[in-house]
Amino acid sequence: MAAGVLVKTCLLGALAFLSGAHAQCDNVVITNTWPGNYQAEFTATAPAAINGLSLDVVFSSPVDAVDFYEGQSTKVDDTHYTLIDNNINVAEGAQIKFTFQVHYSGVTPLVIHEVLNGAEICDSAFTTPAPMENPCAATGMSPYDYSQVLCMSYVFYEAQRSGPLPADQRVTWRGDSALDDGSDVGHDLTGGYYDAGDHVKFGFPMAFTATMLAWGLIDFAEGHQNAGQVEYGQAALKWATDYFLKAHTAHDEFYGQVGAGGTDHAFWGRPEDMTMQRPSYKIDESRPGSDLAAETAAALAGASIVFKSVDPAYSDEVLGVAKELFEFADKYRDIYDNSITDATAFYHSWSGYGDELAWGALWLARATGDDSYLTRAKGFYDEFSLNGDVVQFAWDDKRAGVFALFTLLDGSSEYQNALVGYLSWLKNEAPYTPEGLVFLDAWGANRHAANVAFIALWAAKNGIDTEANQEWGRGQIGQLLGDNPKYHSFVVGFGVDPPQKPHHRSSSCPNPPADCSSGLSNPGPNPHVLYGALVGGPSQDGSYTDDRQDYQHNEVACDYNAAFSGALAALVELS
């Protein structure tokens, strides 16, 4: 092909491609980025014998310069460069590999078209994935489609997955990420969940998330079955517990965090594009973490119940690790963020570790039927005076859950009275927004309402003030789904006027990959709908703005959706 014809072909292609979205050519991999620059690696199979290379490259947006280390780079126009290497000699079918550097001033320019020695080797015009549609069909359930929202809640967990993604992944705009997690300590720590709108894997709230997913699957099994969500719920739980098994690297050793909070939060982009260091942090005999170890034990014990009939071998495996972690938690006592200090600014254990020791013992008592765990739970209850005033039930304070499990396993009036008293306080004395949402914290008010709605619906199912607790729990979930006439739905992708700009990095970034530095301040909706995510919620005065930059009220998190999922399953049972 004559050079003039080649240039004309590329320019016409560029004009066509630049009219829409494009994917990076598969043979170009960005290996390093910094402001206004990236370094990339080109790898291709020679379509014919090559004696001297000429590669015409078209970019998706203007480029200031291209550095081609093995030869010379010639600018044709702002989006079209020709790379020349007269010294290369490659046989047909052999591999061509080289690096180059791109300098730019605007959005990240992607390589969208390539012609190698007259042969077209990449045309990305038809590789852009279609926008993801909601994979959860409406069922017609009223007053709200609890089954559909439950389905969507589990879709949200797929959007939070870290590591290599499975073939049945429903969130199409996510890809494999953080594949080197644990390499700094010589362990495979891939997998698990990104915590919220960021990409840190914080083990403490992740463990609480898993415990609550397990509890919902166990005690609202009928609701999950009726909604067709049993397998999806189990998959969401197992994604966490598989990771916990990897993180348990020795008898008294457990990795409780991957990624440094400050470094991670300084990056606004997709997890697939991370280049920062992701340090791994552990607890062990010399640096213990009773709350983290005991909460993870609770999660694994709950999972052993969930998988007992469907995968007995896995059930036995997670139960064995749960027992080891619980003994570790009790024998070597300390608050976990005294050992994993990076977590202190994000998930400090304000309530201490006594509630987790009781909670873990109760879950092991339930999973094993061994009354010695129940006896130990009672000892922790007394030792740490867990019968005091309770406000929240969340990743930090498990006491309301302790009251519930004691009521189930022991039946003593002492524990049931504590549960009834807490639920009475919620209904009659706790603060509320003007619209009727129980308001237990300025951060993630919706999450706290969902958590205690779960407790109320669980109590109702177990014969405790059934009618009143059902009504109250249904009302709180209704606040999240649309009963609040001022703000409509707080669940992304569901109901009337749902949030469109959640504080969430990966859904705020375009796919195909492009520069996401303006993703936080983008005035429009997130490019991808984060189906099923429950946003933080309003201030106590009821005010709320769908603002991506307001992480206090509009961030999402794995623990926000955990008890929420179980509460939805409870309402499916009642519908």
Overview of this structure, please?
The protein is α+β, with helices and mostly antiparallel strands. 40% of the residues lie in helices and 14% in strands. Strand 1 (28-34) and strand 2 (37-45) form a beta hairpin. 51% of the residues are buried. Mean pLDDT is 92; it is low at 1-21.
What is the SS-derived class?
A: alpha+beta
Number of helices: 18
Number of separate strands? 12
Q: Which sequence of strands runs across the widest sheet?
A: 5-6-3-8-9
Write the element-wise H/E pattern from the N-terminal end onward.
Answer: HEEEEEEEEEHEHHHEHEHHHHHHHHHHHH
Give the termini separation: 69 Å
Shape descriptor reads globular
Query: Helix share of residues?
Result: 40-55%
Q: Estimate the mean pLDDT confidence.
A: 92
Taking all Cα atoms into account, the compactness measure Rg is 27 Å
Main beta-sheet strand count, sense and barrel state: 5 strands, antiparallel
Which blocks of ≥5 consecutive residues have pLDDT under 50?
Answer: 1-21
Strand content: 5-15%
